[in-house]
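Reopening this ticket.

The earlier resolution said the output was attached, but the attachment link was broken on my side. Pasting everything inline this time so it's all in one place.
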Amino acid sequence: MGRFARSWALVKASVAVLQANPRLLVFPLLAAVCALLVSASFLAPLALGGALVDRVDDGQRPWWMAPVVFAFYLIQYFVIFFFNAALVGAARIRLDGGNPTVRDGFAIAASRWRQILGYALIAATVGMILRAIEERADFIGRWISALLGVTWTMTTFLVVPVLVSGNVGPIDAVRQSAELLKRTWGENLAGNIGIGLVFGVVLAGWLLLSAGLVGVAVNAHSVVAIVIAVAVGVVGLLILSLTQSALQGVYAAALHRYAQTGDAGIGFERAWLADAFKLKA
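Inline output:
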């Protein structure tokens, strides 16, 4: 309960930062839109050509499928990391006491596009390796792939803030992220898990409420009411998803700032982070 209380305090502090600058929601929104466009640009031609289901005689995918998948990973990761860098950059300005604009965030991300592309290349390579492990070893492969994926996610948790705040390359950014995680928080990511837990509870409640609204609309035999109920549910889910993404970006910026200076910035009490992330002996 004490850990949950600290996590809730961190969530409230992140919410306060987001409320002070709601423009930060623009970045995850545009990231989602661009990610969908990238997916459609790859999946639509493949689906129309039957490449998703066609196999060659030996049961393997066509030779060109691997480079296409790699290109998809690379572009998709670049889009995600670019908008995340814009979000983290704008959040860092806010934590430093400024009042960032959307243009400020994009300017920061644009100034780091080469490093972001390099990191996307690394992430795409790791993604292809994990995909290969998962496909070649059945259940054990999926378990190993999932474990390695979680480890990679934890290790690279602070890569984007490192890229945003310093003039370092992608390899050094991954190394610094791993060092910061090991030195400052060890295996305990209670704050980030707390954000996920809080939003998981809120999401479950919203799904139940949305299902209830749809049920009432169905019983009323009103097509208009059903459409409205479904639309309200979808919009609510979208808002929750965007808010969670924005909060995680603010939180990542605060964690990195805390690791660098011992102070997470405006709206974050140092004791909260010191308690939530125990220093390793």
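Reporter confirms the inline version is readable. The chain has one domain: 2-276. Residues 223-261 form the longest helix (39 residues).
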